[in-house]
Amino acid sequence: MHTVIQVTQSFEFSASHRLYCSSMSEDENRQVFGKCANKNGHGHNYVVEVTTCGQPHDTTGTVVDLASAQRVVKDRVIDRFDHKHLNHDCEEFRSMNPSVENIARVVWDRLHGQFGQAELARVRVWETPKTYAEYDGED
Ligand code: NI
CA–CA separation, 74 vs 108, rounded Å? Predict the structure, then answer.
């Protein structure tokens, strides 16, 4: 029997960002991003849901070591972005707009291959209680 189970853990970080593309005019930025393009940025309480998957271990019945997985996400994602201004403090977003879509992709890249036997299945990033982006890799 090959039963693959997904396990999701939830995390939070708070950060500022500004949605703005320097290749576009002020007016275009205003049209596309509205008040999210305001010069000095604004903040969000982001929620990151990390889903790993695999076959539950015969004896323990677990897919992933939850404590280790938590440490990985804390070290590689939460500590890196929490209480930062994403555009200014985080190298990833110096030249890439810190949209929730791009944040989901960056989080995926930082976590992919970091969970031992378990595989990263999906990253979901909530920017507001109404909006999330998710990414599950290229193929
Ligand atoms: Ni925003």
Answer: 14
Instruction: Determine the distance separating the centroid of ligand 1 and the alpha carbon of 58, expressed in angstroms.
Output: 44
HSE of 136 in the Cβ direction (CA atoms, 13 Å)?
7
Q: Is the pLDDT score of 139 beyond 80?
A: no
Cα-flanking dihedrals φ and ψ of residue 113, to 5°? 80, 10
Q: What are residue 5's phi and psi, to 5 degrees? A: -115, 140
Q: Is 36 marked active-site?
A: yes
Q: Look up the pTM and report it.
A: 0.95
Structure tokens at 22: 């320097």
83 is catalytic: yes
> Own/partner pairs for 64-68, CB < 8 Å, 24+ apart?
64/7, 64/115, 64/116, 64/117, 64/118, 65/116, 66/7, 66/9, 68/115, 68/116
